[in-house]
Amino acid sequence: MKLLFILFLFTASLFGSQVETFRWKDGETYLSFLERNKLPLKPLYYKLDEDEQQLTEEIMSGVHYHVSKNDAGELSQIFIPLNDELQIHIYKHDKNYFFETIPIVSEMRTEAFVLKIDHSPYLDIIKETGSKKLATIFVNSFKSSLNFKRDLKKGDTLAMIYEQKYRLGKPFSMPRLKVAMIEMNGKKNFIYLNDDDRFYNEDGNELEEFLLATPVRNSRISSEFTKKRFHPILNKYRAHLGVDYAASSGTPVMAAGDGKIVFVGESRGYGNMIKIQHSDDYLTLYAHLNSFKKGVRSGFGVKKGEIIAYVGSTGLSTGPHLHFGLYKDKDAIDPLRVVQVATKKLQGREQSAFLKLKSNYKQSIDLHIKNETKFEKESNLDTTCYFNNGGSCVQDKLQDTSDNS
Description:
This protein has 405 residues and is an alpha+beta fold. The chain folds into three domains: 2-105, Roll (Nuclear Transport Factor 2, Chain: A), CATH 3.10.450.350; 107-204 and 346-371, Roll (Nuclear Transport Factor 2, Chain: A); 220-342, Glucose Permease (Domain IIA) (Distorted Sandwich). The protein contains nine helices and 25 strands. The strands form five sheets. Strands 11, 14, 15, 16, 17, 18, 19, 20, 21 and 22 form a ten-stranded antiparallel β-sheet that branches. A six-stranded mixed β-sheet has the order 5-4-3-2-1-25. Strands 6-7-8-9-10 form a five-stranded antiparallel β-sheet, with helices on both faces. Helix 5 (121-129) runs antiparallel to helix 6.
């Protein structure tokens, strides 16, 4: 009911507003965004609590955010997604600006398509759908098990079923692959997303390499991951997009997996911080560090288990600990869930459930192949009216029209 109320307020308050959609630029920080738009820093950042200040550092480049202006052309509301469930809401009321975090109202759709190979899976999916995201998740799902260049022939069939979130009628967040199939040498090869959120092949074997169980030895978990929760005392939505490991100051911090360091430096909320880019679009973040290991620099490669820094309490921190974040395709995910799933094998009831899931997926793929299901493209002449401006329809215009799908 609360979500419906928020949606009502959102659409009602935008009545009579000019609404535009922008893409968050590379290198843009929350503070630089406020300064660039001449928004007051004190109420929108410096008066926020520590958790809220840290959340502002979770805004990912490339995310689409909505801006509404009043009749005088002043910014009246801004909605900036933090993940696929929670967003920052900046709004003006009685000449003052306010900050809050609220849920994102979205709907999930299950979609599918089938196509014949002409050039390559990646290029053909982009040609059919216009989506680099769909092409990437399909190709990556088979990367470790099949050789497309050697065994794929023109005319072979591929199919995929996936979930896509929609916000204001537009695709939002990364598609979530449910099952993918590609025909090679007359054989159908499948990848399945199991109920444990991991991908398995036909034999029920896991397909991805996993990270260290913990990047800090002799530590305890002091705060777990959550994308969205409502705090009944503070009466506001909170999020903690990582896991905190409490440990003594100076305790070595290890790289969770092989990768390339893409950031070494300082931020106000996270203090001394390192980011490492791994394969398959995984990225890890290590924050509140006391210091970096000598020689650690941006652009350097690291190995799984290699010491990169030392636990500290820099930035907005009340005591020595490591904040460890894990991201997949720029979306924050729970590191503990990934590691826990990686350490178990399908047996007993879990194995039986997977076999049933696999059978259902196969039937669905066969039905889509029989019906030659095509990708449903969005019409360029979108007549859906999401916001009204004095009775005339205002489209959800994307100022940067380069591909981000």
